[in-house]
Amino acid sequence: MRPSISKFQTDAPFFGCPFCSAALTFAQASLSCANGHTFDISRKGYVDLRKRPSESSHYTDAFFNARLRMMHRGMYSDLVDRLSEVAQHYGPGGTSVDVGCGDGFITRALGMTAGIDISLEGIRVAARGGGSVLWACGDGAHLPLVDAAAAYLLNVFAPSEYSEFSRVCPQGVLIKVVPGEHHMQELRKAIGLPQETHSEAIALFKEKTTLLYQCDAIQTTVLDSEEERRDVAQMSPVGFDRVAADSGWEDLENITTHSRILVGRLP
Ligand SMILES: C[S@@+](CC[C@H](N)C(=O)[O-])C[C@H]1O[C@@H](n2cnc3c(N)ncnc32)[C@H](O)[C@@H]1O
Ligand SMILES: [Zn+2]
User: What pTM does this model have?
Assistant: First the structure.
């Protein structure tokens, strides 16, 4: 059997059925629950655990490919370095899940067990890189995981459903990243968007977890080609609906990423 399929054979129950919440077990290139719901595992190394296909106009193939290229270009290398340190220090050993993993670059860099994202386009881009990560398409608001499936969770620039986080990772560690106030400041200026502080997301994190640690990662990357400028305009929600041909991003000379890393203990 291909490793891209056999890697889904886990020792303990891990994925949960999106329809009935029962544990999914591995058999013949698929995952099924005791109530007869079955999900085929793709030879490409992922499984689609959505209740029904969901369309997203924003999170497209172009978005994830542009994001992945800029990840490889090192635009988030400071964030990845800081996250690796934080995960080593605060992340207990054991099973780890990246919720809202997108193209999977960070998931893979941190050696996570699984990456889950609601976008099938994102999961396909992530799985293209091969390797042992269990990629699953699923909704973070109803995680397709059994109770207490994970020892720690990662959640980078993606929505958080804290009741689900506590269900799948009780008393575990949550590492969440939100944009800092300088994030993508050159692009925001070029397309006429004000900066945001994301103070509500930070306050909610502090309400829902016991804060263990926080720090910032910030870096500025020089953009030396039109392709890179276009990738920057396409790879961020900042550009959604705004990146028209004449919006000004063509003149970007550099781009700043500013990430706030929050580490908390879930109830
Ligand atoms: C800005 S991207 C960040 C992706 C990745 N964490 C990274 O930093 O490159 C936000 C991601 O959240 C995902 N997302 C949005 N709503 C979601 C949901 N309800 N469940 C799971 N993923 C979701 C999107 O599909 C997208 O991949
Ligand atoms: Zn089921």
Answer: 0.97
Of all ligands present, the nearest one to the C-alpha of 137 is 1
For a mutational test of ligand 1's pocket, the pick from 68, 82, 157, i.e. the residue with the most ligand atoms closer than 8 A to its C-beta, is 157
Q: 214, 196, 255: which is closest to 82 by C-alpha?
A: 214
Substitution site in 48, 117, 124 for ligand 1 pocket (most atoms within 8 Å of beta carbon)? 117
Tokens of 162: 């804290």
pLDDT in tens, 39-95: 999 999 999 999 998 877 788 898 999 999 999 999 999 999 999 999 999 988 899
Domains with residue ranges and CATH for the chain: 46-265 (3.40.50.150)
Answer for the pair 31, 6: CB distance below 8 angstroms, yes or no.
Answer: no
Task: Tell whether ligand 1 has an atom less than 6 A from the beta carbon of residue 101.
Answer: yes
